[in-house]
# Entry
Amino acid sequence: MVKKEFRAEPFSLAFDPATTALVMIDMQRDFVEPGGFGEALGNDVSLVRTAIEPCKKVLAAARKAGLLVIHTREGHRADLADCPPAKLTRGGKTFIGSDGPMGRILVRGEKGHDLIPELYPVAGEPVVDKPGKGAFYQTDLHLMLHTAGIKTLIVCGVTTEVCVTTTVREANDRGYECIVPADCVGSYFPEFQRFALEMIKAQGAIFGWVSDSAAIVDGLKS
Ligand code: C5J
# Structure
């Protein structure tokens, strides 16, 4: 076992590259480009785009270090049979499945549902399609991680207080140690970004560690 460490808060996290995976959450056009789900909900997507460059650095370092890299996408079947009514319509408005400039919003196979070109998977990197916010709900993510002997997750992506922290909470309950590089996650709400990250690392890393892209790159290189 190779013992390495990531600088992190509230304290350093020991890891072994052989049992560590990078999970890139929902870096889809629908969340980070104009004309998608995020913007349809009234958000300014430029706020989450700050995560793209740091994510690129972590992704490159993870690939170089030979880590398992998994990408996730939030979205639904074209017939929306996997989209609960409670998610489909909010306050009388329906966004998911409606037509937008990048195709039907949050529907699999549409342009908006795809991952952004800056962080596109390379051959061999699994893509997990998830119907919910958490990446473990109704997916084979846990089975893939378990089969690969993974213990530690580096979790990047959008949005911090929704799909990222839902996934980190699910992962923590399944026994994974999760580290979140703060500059590699994005929120449309700066105050949610701050508090979501505070919550992860509070009370002695109650459900994870918080770090940054430089610390992840250094840790993987060391
Ligand atoms: C949201 C996500 N915000 N990927 N999804 O609806 O965080």
